[in-house]
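Example (one chain per record):
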Amino acid sequence: MSAAPVRFGLVGSGWRSEFFVRLAKALPERLTVTGVVTRSTGRAAEVEAAWGVPAYLSAAELVRAGEAPEFVVPSVPWPVTPESTRELVALDVPVLAETPPAPDLAGLRDLWRDTGASGLVQVAEQYNLMPGHAARLALVREGVIGEVTSVQLSSTHLYHAVSLIRHLLGVGFAPATVSAGAFTAPLADPLSPKGWSDDLTPKDATTTIATLDFGGRTGLYDFTDNQWWNPLRARRVVVRGSLGEIVDDTVVRMADPRTPVESPLVRRATGVDLNLEGRELRHISFEGRVVHRNEFTGAGFSEDDLAVVDLLCRTGAWVRGEGEAPYPLAEGCQDHLLGLAIDESARTGRPVVTGREEWAD
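Predicted structure:
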C-alpha cells in the first residue's frame, strides 16, 4: 500500500470510536484519525481534550475539513447506522459501516436499494481476519482438507458467527434453511465488560443452537449468553472436509491411502520466558510454513486488535485502488439476514427459509 498513513474519520464518540482512535495512535505510520463527529459542542470539547483529535458537529464538516478522510466509519447505535451511511454516500465518501449495517431485514433491503449501487459501502466485519480464523481459511482455500462440507462454531454471536460459517463453507449468498432452539441452564458468569464480579452464583443463561442447511453444506451455530467474556465457556471450531478436518488448531488428513496424520497450527508468540521481543503474536505456521503473519509487529496488539487494524488498512488500500474490497455491503447484509433467521427460528420454534435477496446479484 502507499506509504502515507490511511486517513479515516469517525461518526460517533462512544467506546467503539475510542477503540479505533486507540489503534490509530498505536500505529501512526499506518493510520490517522482525521476527526470525530459528535452531537454537541460540549462533547466535542471532551473528545478533543481526551482523544487528541479534531471534533465536528456534522459529517459534512468532517469530510470538508482541511485533512479530509479517505473513508469514514459510522460508529453509532444500530438504528443510526443506515442513516449515517446514507448521509456519507450522499457526500460521495467511502464508508466502513459497523456491524450490522441495519437493524432488521426491512432496513437491510432499504439500505441496499439506497446505497448498494454506489459501491461505496464496506462493512467492518473483522472475524475472518483474526489470526486463527485467517490461518484456517488459508488452509481451507488451499484444499488441505478437500471440499468443506460442514462447519461447527461455538465462539461469537449471530452475524459474526455466520460470516465465519459462510466463508469457511464457501457458500456465498446461497439460500438456507435455518432451524434453531434456545435452551436455558444455570451458569456462573464471573467476568463481563464491566470487569470481574466476584460472584460465582449460577444464574440462568441461554444457549442458542442452530443448523444452517445450504443444500449439501451445513453450519452448526452454538452460542451461550456472554460467551465472549465468560472464561467458563471455551470457543470451538470444527471444519469438516472430504479429505480431513480442522478441529481448533489441529488438522487431520491422510498422508497416503493408509496413513492418517495430525498437524498442529503453531503460534509463535514472543515475550514468553526469556524472550525479550515484546508480548505479541508473530505468525502461525502449518507443517513448517507460515500461513498467517502479523504485519503490525511492535504494537503489542491482541488478536482482535490485529483483525480490526488489518481491516482498516485493507479499506485504505481499497479506497486508493491498491487492493480488493475488504467486506462489501452485500456480505454484511447476508450475514445479518441469516443471523436474523436464527433469532426468528429460536423464537418461533419453526424453520426459517432465506431466499435470494437483491444484494446477492
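Caption: Residues 329-348 form the longest helix (20 residues).
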